Amino acid sequence: MAELLLIVTIGGERVALPAAAVESVVELDTLIPVPRAAPHVAGLSALRSRVLTVIDCMRSLELGATDCSDGIREAAVVELDGHHYALIVDLVEDVVEVLSEPVIVRAAMGEGWERVSKGMVETEQGPILLIDIAALVSGVEVKAA
Amino acid sequence: MAEAQSKAVAPRTIRLSVELLDRLMSGVSDMVLARNELARRLREAPGDVAVDGAFERLSSIIADMRDAITRTRMQRIENLFVALPRMVRDLSAELGKQVLVDIEGGDVELDREMIEMIRDPLTHIIRNAVDHGIELPAERLKAGKREIGILSVSARQSGNQILIDIQDDGRGINGKKLVEKAIAAGVIEKSEASDLEPREQLALIFEAGLSTAKEVTAISGRGVGMDVVRSNIERIGGIVEVDSTFGAGTRMTLRVPLTLTIIPALTVSVAGQSFAIPRSAIDEIVRANGESVTLEKLGGAGVATIRGRRVPEIALSDVLGLKSDIPEHERSLVVLRPAGTDVYALAVDRIHDHEELVVKPAAPAVMATGLYAGTTLADDGSPILLFDPAGIAQVGGVKLESHDRAARIVDAPIAAVEVDTPVLLFHGLDGGRRAMRLAIVDRIEEVPATAIRPGAGQLRVQLGEAILPLAGVNGELPSEKVRLFRLNDGTCEIGYAFREVIDLSAIAHDIIPAEHPGEVSAVTLVAGEPAELVDPHWLFSTFLTAAERLSEQPVCRLPADDPWMQNMLRPIVEAAGYRVVSEADEYEVDLAILSEASSGDLTAARIIRLRSEPDPTSAKDETIYRYDRAALLTALKSAGAGRR
């Protein structure tokens, strides 16, 4: 069976996350801020007995900030190096099958997108950008290092 | 169940993978949260009593289970320490040395896996200390030391780490000699050797193949092995530090991370957000507007003077970049002492509660701030960040210097053994300045005054679903909110009302015992002023048994020879709060219950007569039909009430 992708919207853009890496899709209600942490760390939240580090994908991509004031946000939960993260997205749309290997996007993308891009893949719904979750989680710091 | 049967023979054990235990543990945690959710739903839609009862049972089972599962992973470090005295004794006897072992901090809890990982390195370091560190008695006398060498091993929590100190007052490490050896062995170049700081010289003992010992001994070989110790400790994410004064002693410090360690913590809040501070790092807590505290600014830097001691002060809100709307003089100062360094004061908005927290490492992006030691879930399921006190000092710009412990130990080896008893200093309802041992205070509660009412002969306070005897009511109760300590002796709880907490402090001075036993067991100096020390034993013995004391409970006499009374009636009477006696017991009774046939017994304050026929024989008949339960209970109740 072909690899599955989770289609989400971040900053108005439809992008794909590898579905195998996504443990669940949750609605976050409480968000405990982490003072002094990198700006893309929106805070902490709890899912069952686990602490989730909540990543604001908009900030991670330097597209501005997600407005978290209205309470409930949709987020995709992923695990990376033993830690659980919740990636705040605008919308979780669908799960689709991959129809091709990722290829490099040759046109110039925004700087933030460039950093997290794993290339473009074909799906039944047309071409879509595949996101590198690790790059999304580590945010802007990668650039500084 | 099979387990219970085999217990009579010998406790049987099986091996389990830690991974399985982890899975069990997270399963139980999920169960607790599901239970909380269910509790919330039940509260919203009040159901019938049967459901509530079943739910309560489920709750207590889950609590027990969580307790047991948590314990499977945690072990007191005592298990590791318990073998040390014997090992040192054997070693020193073999070497003709005299060594006194002083062990502290055995109650620190550590992940069992971690304990196994540090067993070998710890053993190795102790062997080294006895073999190479501590001198022969004659040499010690010549050097002006006591004949008996002191080896102290202590464990404590510090921030996100467990610190194990192994300290001896032996000959110390000769840094220069070590450097010479290192050059000879080709570990370092001669040119760089001269640039080495004393600390860097000492660190050379961790290089492979270096030893300052002249001879190879059977005990610790040539001293090679410190490199192995270091790599073992580093493999579990820890570090080894060495500190030594030549001629005066050596201290080795193992710092290992706490992964699943449960640590006692104090929750504080700033700008409306809660954080936790490991209690081990807290020296004391004072109010910024307290009498003994003054705050000053020197070139923008805060200096707090606490009882004459000048302490650097930083505001947590500044460190975190948060806006606190509590004025500076209304904050509380938490005096922190990170890992064997100087103290500093941290201003927080509010102090909340002492809690036991299971700390888990936080994500790298959070740890990168250097402020936090980990994350944890509070009782209500929301995440809390645990501070690293050393990290806060660093980010806040406080310079900390480590103390020269090696020197102090040689001067006063005994003094280090003394431990101050931490106490909570408070004002009682009558205004008296009192101190309560911190260990027995479970938590501080605030209840509405309506939750306190007399019940079964004494004042009782309702706390959630528990009703506890209330002590400390020696003055007028506040009309709205009452603050009280929840005291726990391990099995029973009582409440102790007070007006306000002054401070967290320690008893360091002499105690002058009280002449008569009572609520106050002694008077002592706490924080420079006299305070009465509350006697917890007296509290528990007085307030817990009071409920069972004869005079407090109404007494009812039942004829001993009437089987119906003894078998059918007695449980009802006892359930109504009476103590049941028979004619043979010579008590003054509040109530006597008689069958209509029998006569006499007019000594009782009230008498209830029971008849066996449902219908009264005449209109004047005041007897009660013996199966008229409602009438019986009413009569029992009014008899009990009439007594008061």
TrEMBL record, chain A:
Name of this chain's protein: Chemotaxis protein CheW
List each copy of the CheW-like domain by range: 2-142
Transmembrane regions: none
Range of residues in the leader sequence:
none
Query: According to its UniProt record, what is one Pfam family this protein matches?
Result: CheW
The record's annotation in SUPFAM superfamilies points to: CheW-like
Tell me what organism the protein belongs to: Sphingomonas sediminicola
Superkingdom assignment: Bacteria
